[in-house]
Amino acid sequence: MWTVFLASLKTLLPLERMKIKFKKLHPLAVTPEYKTAGAAAFDIGLIEDIKISPRSFLKVRTGLVIATPENHVLILASRSSNPVKKGIDFANSIGVIDSDYCGPNDELFLILENITDEIVELRAGDRVAQGMFIPVTRGEFEEMDIIESTDRGGHGSTGN
Fold first, then answer.
1. What residues contact residue 117 under an 8 Å CB cut-off, 6+ apart?
2. Which of 17, 46, 50, 107 has the most CB atoms in a 10 Å sphere around its CB?
3. Of the candidates 52, 72, 84, 92, the residue with the CA atom closest to the CA atom of residue 134
4. Bridge partners, residue 66, by sequence
């Protein structure tokens, strides 16, 4: 029984990694790479030294254009250590990069937030973001007069 299960599981898992095309728009752009064999996301770094004023936001360059594969989305997230080690986070929580945002000059930008009361200084090459490719299923919307389901009580209704 387990042999059949494992054999069927292998057919669901990709045998090869996706080939991802990217372009460096700046010589200091950090080549995207997975830092460990088990990493789900690849690191993205800065191309310039920056200072972010206390409790403010700054749009920063990565120097990268990444061609997200068709039927996928590239999710950009802050590295989990950023708030504690660097005093920053993503201002918009995550970035959603569609597969059609891949023209020759469609650079990935990050909006970083200084979450401290001090100036935060970052250097070119600092890895501040991570990217992950996720398959996308697009929905077909159908407007209804009545949705056949029970109301749950609104926002935040599953607990305190």
1. 54, 55
2. 46
3. 72
4. 22
